Structure to design on (1082 residues):
């Protein structure tokens, strides 16, 4: 009797011990620090058997988002026996490659990676995230912002795998330079400081334009901005317009007045922003009038310009190991404005402390197609892609394009220990990013059906003003007229219903 | 086998295959132009000629034709002159002729969508060699992509680089297949090189010239990838050609119905214009033919 | 031939050659750069002006790890392009001969109209053809297959073959066929034995154009495939991420033009072999 109990005890202990040993050693070879237990940990996924089944994924070009998709696809194959096919598409062509199969009823892809602002167009074709994944601790730790971005109405139809925002990036070494501070004070009468308003941005950029403040024998310039018309210029304009047009005291719409669906794009807030944008041309580097995102990354990340404001990429590029300006850059919230247009009183509201409106810009998101026959595999893949261990790993590789989106990601020690960033740089970075989450005066993209039509119309108008073909007011009046036509074509109620979701996000209810 | 039956054997297979493949797409395009297929409402509903009425007032569309004409006619004219000149230089009496003939063909073989990226790096005003070379020659940097006229010039330069070989090849092959006798006759008449060219070479090669020009005009008008990558239609709308505008409306905005109506209108305008151009060219080139 | 003329002639040729080669040299040197070699301004000489790296080239052959594997797409492109070009050339040349030699009439439609119909297929901007071709291949179950692409390419390439060959057949004097037929040949025999051998330059041109337009098409290869079939231009463009990879795209441009250069080299001899005017000064 005793011997049986003993054997049983011994066996149980051996199995438990052996089991833990086995799972503890298996997964480090995948490059992660340690597998965090959960619904889609390495351990859980390795227990799934998808042998004989194929998963189709469409994602962005390598490496941004494309490379981690490949990496985790390969891991998923090894762990579950599934076959995973991944296809990579440049951003400019991604929408059509996803939408044509959707609209023609062709079941082409199970998993999709794309820009989160297309949710208005895609949501009918997406499968809602099942409860089990929705309630997983990894999902619960995603910040409110990014869970909001993934939600349509009451359902989460996109799967958060990344978090994006626009923020100000600047050359810390230049701002800290005592000699330049003196010269700046002499010329302008105020201290050199990180711009808190767009007017300050204008002044600083203009001062540091077209001379060699980096000491390498080449002229350097004030600001690198994304200005290529049908590229991502629309987001650059929204960044500039947010502070002037998003009034913390006036709720109910930024692009449209939610009640009447009247476009606000030609109201004085936006017009002022466009005027500032046109004025900014004088401190662009050569060619800066038609910079795509890639050019902006090379320009700021390569040390040519003093400041920039857009996604994380340029900052990450600057902080790369071999970068000549590593640890010389700083992060700050987007500039604000002392004056914000109030559309109710038709006057400019004045703020002693500049009012800011963080732009929670679109970024990479993922989803599962409603028509997919492999939804179980698809959600497992996405959950695995973004499990805690993988996310921490992906955050460390700049070119992956995965940026912080969980509360756990906003810890300074992660950036200093893992990536060797200077403490001051890391602290600024973390504070800037997490601060945006807390704001009650935020701007999101126009996440409605037909978003591309509104944005190409806006970009065309902005481009005409930038090229001097029209005045800012004229250009934006033209855009407002087109927007009315687009709303009429798509259906006012449809757009209003969708826009109501956006407004709820912005007002941070 | 009678000539009558025989002649059908030649043209029918190709015609039938072609019609079989493009019949549905053509009819579909016409049908969808009469619908409001859009990003938010896919499907073929019926709205009659609403799209066509809309495009009649679309100033951006009509303005794009002006730019298209400038870009297409300008670049094709240059391609023709250069291509013809090069063909005349290398078709005979040429050391290392083979090497040069193959070399001159290579630009046409590059993939436009990839080559456009390379050209953008060339014209990049801060990081590209174009301005660097200008500086070396003592000239000022040019805003290749930021100024309307120069942006158009950049696009034309790319087109000329890529497609002059097309003209070159057509005309070279044409020259090489001309019969000998008229040249011998002219030589006997004591004609010098210029007179031979004007009276013999040029008129005999006129049909091929016209064919090459028409094909190139058709292709040049469809230019899309190059404009998208290099200038994105900018600055402002300075390099926005009709086909680029149709691309924006069709696949960016996803206004499928409207884009179809734009395309159909574009097709009709192009067909008419090309017929006129072909007739004008025939008149201009063949009228020089005196010795039939 | 005066010395001045010769000097000018070779000067012009060399000038144009420099213009032709320059972008390729730039692509070659850029293919060995990394981001640091670019952001400082244009650089040309490795080791002297920038740190060379093989990363641009490696990215073309490594699947995963931030790269793509172009082997498979290379093969797919070869299969699709060659098949479509051959079929287009055959059908197109036959049709062109008919249009050049015979008179067709169906109602008010004449030769010139039929010829124009062929070439007018090239006028339509590809954008609007995306969805109908998609629907058509979907109906036939040929989406994401090489066969589907070949069918679409035939419709795209045949017009070029027809248009080029009509022009070339028109320059071959009718007397040749007529005398052949007087000798007792059927029209087809006249075509096959007499006219075709005299049209080698035209065939070279038409064939080359078909291969080039087919090999370099991006739009249809992109729209009509998903994950199973991938042609070369689509595979290469998969590298074009937010940070534009000057290096790998430069390498890719060089790699994708290579096979066509080989073809041009081979076919060029056929071009000059049919040379009838070689001895004329």
């Amino acid at each position: 009797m005793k011997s049986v109990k003993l054997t049983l005890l011994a066996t149980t202990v051996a199995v438990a011990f052996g089991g833990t040993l086995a799972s503890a050693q298996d997964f480090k070879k995948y490059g992660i620090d340690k597998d965090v237990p959960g619904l889609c940990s390495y351990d859980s996924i390795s227990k799934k058997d998808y042998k004989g089944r194929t998963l189709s994924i469409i994602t962005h070009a390598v490496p941004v988002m494309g490379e981690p998709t490949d990496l985790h696809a390969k891991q998923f194959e090894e762990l579950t026996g599934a076959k995973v096919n991944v296809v990579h598409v440049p951003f400019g062509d991604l929408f059509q490659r996803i939408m044509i199969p959707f609209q023609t009823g062709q079941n082409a892809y199970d998993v999709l990676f794309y820009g989160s602002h297309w949710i208005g167009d895609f949501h009918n074709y997406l499968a809602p995230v099942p409860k089990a994944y929705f309630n997983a601790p990894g999902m619960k730790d995603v910040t409110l912002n990014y869970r909001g971005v993934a939600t349509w109405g009451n359902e989460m139809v996109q799967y958060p795998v990344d978090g994006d925002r626009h923020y100000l990036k600047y050359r810390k070494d230049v701002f800290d330079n005592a000699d330049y501070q003196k010269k700046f004070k002499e010329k302008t009468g105020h201290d050199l400081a990180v711009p808190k308003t767009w007017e300050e941005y204008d002044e600083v950029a203009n001062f540091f334009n077209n001379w060699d403040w980096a000491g390498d024998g080449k002229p350097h310039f004030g600001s690198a901005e994304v200005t290529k018309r049908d590229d991502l210029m629309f987001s650059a304009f929204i960044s500039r317009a947010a502070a002037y047009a998003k009034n913390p005291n006036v709720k109910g719409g930024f692009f449209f007045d939610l009640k009447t669906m009247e476009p606000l794009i030609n109201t004085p807030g936006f017009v002022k922003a466009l005027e500032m944008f046109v004025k900014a041309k004088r401190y662009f580097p050569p060619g800066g009038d038609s910079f795509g995102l890639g050019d902006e990354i090379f320009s700021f990340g390569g040390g040519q310009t003093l400041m920039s404001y857009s996604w994380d990429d340029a900052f990450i590029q600057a902080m790369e190991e071999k970068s000549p300006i590593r640890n010389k850059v700083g992060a700050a919230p987007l500039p604000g404005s002392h004056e914000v247009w109030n559309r109710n009183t038709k006057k400019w509201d004045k703020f002693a402390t500049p009012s800011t409106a963080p732009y929670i810009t679109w970024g990479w998101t993922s989803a599962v197609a409603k028509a997919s026959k492999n939804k179980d595999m698809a959600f497992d893949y996405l959950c695995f892609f973004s499990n805690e261990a993988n996310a921490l790993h992906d955050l460390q590789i700049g070119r992956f394009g995965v940026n912080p989106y969980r509360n756990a990601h906003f810890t300074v020690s992660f950036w200093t220990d893992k990536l060797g960033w200077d403490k001051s740089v890391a602290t600024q970075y973390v504070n800037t990013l997490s601060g945006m989450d807390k704001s009650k005066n935020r701007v999101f993209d126009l996440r409605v059906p037909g978003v591309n039509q509104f944005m190409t119309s806006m970009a065309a108008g902005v481009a005409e003003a930038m090229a001097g073909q029209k005045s800012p007011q004229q250009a934006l009046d033209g855009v407002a007229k087109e927007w009315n036509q687009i709303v009429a074509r798509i259906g006012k109620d449809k757009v209003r219903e969708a826009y109501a979701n956006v407004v709820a996000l912005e007002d941070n209810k | 086998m009678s000539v009558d039956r025989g002649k059908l054997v030649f043209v029918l297979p190709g015609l039938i295959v072609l019609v079989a493949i493009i019949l549905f797409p053509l009819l579909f395009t016409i049908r969808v132009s009469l619908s409001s297929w859009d990003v938010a409402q896919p499907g073929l509903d019926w709205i009659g000629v609403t799209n066509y009425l809309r495009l009649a007032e679309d100033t951006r569309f009509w303005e794009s034709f002006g730019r298209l004409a400038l870009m297409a006619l300008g670049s094709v004219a240059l391609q023709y002159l250069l291509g013809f000149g090069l063909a005349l230089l290398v078709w005979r009496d040429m050391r290392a002729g083979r090497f040069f003939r193959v070399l001159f063909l290579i630009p046409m073989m590059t993939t436009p969508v990839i080559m456009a990226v390379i050209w953008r790096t060339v014209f990049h005003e801060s990081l590209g060699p174009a301005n660097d070379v200008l500086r070396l020659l003592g000239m000022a940097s040019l805003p290749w992509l930021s100024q309307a006229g120069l942006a158009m010039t950049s696009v034309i330069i790319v087109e000329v680089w890529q497609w002059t070989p097309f003209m070159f090849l057509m005309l070279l092959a044409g020259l090489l297949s001309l019969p000998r006798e008229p040249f011998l006759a002219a030589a006997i008449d004591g004609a010098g090189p210029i007179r031979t060219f004007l009276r013999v070479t040029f008129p005999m090669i006129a049909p091929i010239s016209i064919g090459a020009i028409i094909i190139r005009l058709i292709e040049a008008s469809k230019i899309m990838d190059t404009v998208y990558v290099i200038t994105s239609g900018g600055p402002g709308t300075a390099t926005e050609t009709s086909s680029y505008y149709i691309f924006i409306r069709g696949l960016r905005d996803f206004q499928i119905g409207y884009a179809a109506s734009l395309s159909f209108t574009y097709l009709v305008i192009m067909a008419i214009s090309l017929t006129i151009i072909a007739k004008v060219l025939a008149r201009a080139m063949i009228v020089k033919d005196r010795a039939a | 031939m005066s010395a001045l003329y010769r000097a000018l002639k070779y000067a012009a040729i060399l000038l144009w050659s420099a213009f032709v080669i320059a972008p390729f040299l730039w692509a070659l040197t850029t293919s060995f750069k990394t981001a640091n070699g670019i952001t400082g301004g244009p650089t040309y000489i490795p080791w002297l002006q920038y740190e060379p790296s093989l990363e641009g080239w490696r990215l073309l052959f490594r699947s995963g790890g931030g790269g793509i594997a172009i082997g498979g797409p290379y093969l797919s492109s070869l299969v699709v392009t060659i098949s479509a070009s051959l079929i287009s050339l055959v059908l197109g040349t036959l049709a062109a001969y008919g249009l050049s030699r015979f008179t067709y009439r169906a109602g008010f439609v004449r030769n010139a109209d039929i010829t124009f119909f062929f070439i007018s297929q090239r006028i339509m901007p590809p954008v609007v053809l995306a969805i109908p071709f998609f629907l058509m291949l979907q109906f036939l179950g040929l989406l994401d297959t090489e066969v589907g692409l070949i069918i679409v390419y035939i419709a795209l390439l045949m017009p070029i073959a027809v248009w080029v060959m009509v022009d070339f057949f028109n320059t071959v004097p009718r007397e040749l066929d007529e005398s052949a037929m007087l000798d007792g040949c059927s029209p087809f025999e006249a075509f096959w034995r007499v006219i075709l051998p005299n049209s080698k330059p035209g065939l070279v041109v038409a064939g080359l154009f078909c291969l080039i337009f087919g090999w370099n098409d991006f739009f249809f290869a992109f729209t009509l495939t998903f994950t199973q079939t991938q042609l070369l231009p689509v595979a290469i463009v998969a590298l074009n991420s937010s940070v534009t990879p000057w290096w790998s795209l430069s390498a890719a441009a060089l790699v994708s033009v290579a096979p066509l250069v080989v073809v041009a080299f081979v076919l060029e001899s056929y071009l000059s072999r049919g040379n009838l005017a070689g001895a004329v000064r």
Observations:
- Residues 274-281 of chain C have pLDDT under 50 and may be disordered.
- The CA atoms of residues 56 and 268 of chain C lie 32 Å apart.
